[in-house]
Each structure stands twice: as structure tokens, then as C-alpha cells.
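Q: I'm writing up a methods section and want to include an example of the input and output format. Could you take the sequence below and give the corresponding predicted C-alpha cells, formatted cleanly so I can copy it straight into the document?
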Amino acid sequence: QVQLVESGGGLVQAGGSLRLSCAASGRAFSRHAMGWFRQAPGKEREFVAAISWSSLTTPYSDSVKGRFTISRDNAKNTVYLQMNSLKSEDTAVYYCAAAYTVTVVISQYDYWGQGTQVTVSS
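A: Here is the clean output for your methods example:
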């Protein structure tokens, strides 16, 4: 069993930065790949970034590539999403999730956090 809790969301001006955190519980955390997804009102949940157990593989969606950075600290059971140069279109609820292998496919993620709201004002 893996439990995930996101934090760090809030209101930020366009061009600003936020750092999201995802705290995980459970002994199996270090063996899981982790991902970040987001969902805006009226839209489907979409992939943002993922990271392998070793941190050697980090795919990003084209919309955030070069602006967002995913990282993890297995000793602290925590995954991060550093978001820079934020745009109004980044406004969404952001979710972290765990999978057995690194993947961009939402159906392959087995555990999900409750989400944290990110609002970017223009």
C-alpha cells in the first residue's frame, strides 16, 4: 500500500515559480516510478512529468519541457515538481501518482494523491 499527499500549491503570478511536493508512505516507495498529472476544469487529466526509481529517466510533456523539473529523494520518501516560468494555462489541480515502471500512460498508475491546486494569475 502506498499513500501520497501533495503540497505546495497556491496562487502565483505569471512568470513566477512554485515547488510541489509529494510525500509518500509505505515501504515500497523506493521501488516505484512516480508521475505528476494535472487537470483543469472541463478537461481531461493530462500527463506532466514522470521519474524512474533511479531518477535516470524523466519524461516530460511538451507543454512543460524546459520549464518544469521533476526530482525525487528516496531517503525522504518525497517527489518534487519545480515549476518555473509559470503561465496561466498551467492553472490546474496537480496530482502525484505511483506506478511500477516509469510511464506516461495514466492507466498504469496504481496510487494517487488527493491533488493540490495551482492557480497562475495573468
